[in-house]
Amino acid sequence: MIHMSPDTKQHFACEYDRYGDSYTADTDVTQLKEVFSRINNKNDEKMPLDMIANLEERYLWKSSPLCMFRKNTIYLDLYAVVNDPSTKTHGTMLSIRALELRFHGAKIVSQLKEGVSHVIMGEDHTHVKERKALRRTFEKKFKILSELWVTDSVKEGKLQNENPYLI
């Protein structure tokens, strides 16, 4: 519509999404194809993870194992030198943990900086002292955990108590 009253605009906002798809009316393949043709992913901004987490919490999706790590920002100890992506170690189990974490809602970062909630370490703990020293410089401290916290949480379908996994 080109022109409409505020009441009509409000009515349409309650009945249709921004692509013209009805929230309540049944649809068929042809109508879905038409709606999908209106979607231009290049111009759409990604929804922030905290907004997704709030929606999940609001609609009780937080009990789903697919969003158990949603509120976590995680740095995996995949780098020989902190914050230098060129020193990434390939072919470790931490790379698989990264995929599991993403699948279950975590935000994975390659820079260890303020705002990281957890640092996950593999079997090799050679960088622990360096990571702990860096943690002392942060206002909000992160937890340094064994990768077993991830695997056990995924296996149980819910976040496990972090204390037994602290390094």
Protein architecture, described:
By secondary structure, the chain is an alpha/beta fold. The chain has 2 domains: 6-37, no CATH class; 64-165, BRCT domain (Rossmann fold). Helix content is 35%, strand content 9%. The chain has a 4-stranded parallel sheet with strand order 2-1-3-4, sandwiched between helices. It is elongated, with a radius of gyration of 21 Å. The chain starts with 5 loop residues before the first helix and ends in an 11-residue tail after the last helix.
Task: Reconstruct the topology from this structure.
Layout: H1 6-15, H2 29-37, H3 49-58, E1 73-76, H4 93-103, E2 107-109, E3 118-121, H5 128-136, E4 143-146, H6 148-156
Parallel strand pairs: 1-2, 1-3, 3-4
Protein name: DNA ligase IV
Family: Belongs to the ATP-dependent DNA ligase family.
Domain BRCT: 101-167
Provide tags for this entry:
35% helix, DNA_ligase_IV_dom, 4 strands, four-stranded parallel beta sheet, DNA ligase (ATP) activity, Rossmann fold, 167 residues, 2 domains, alpha/beta
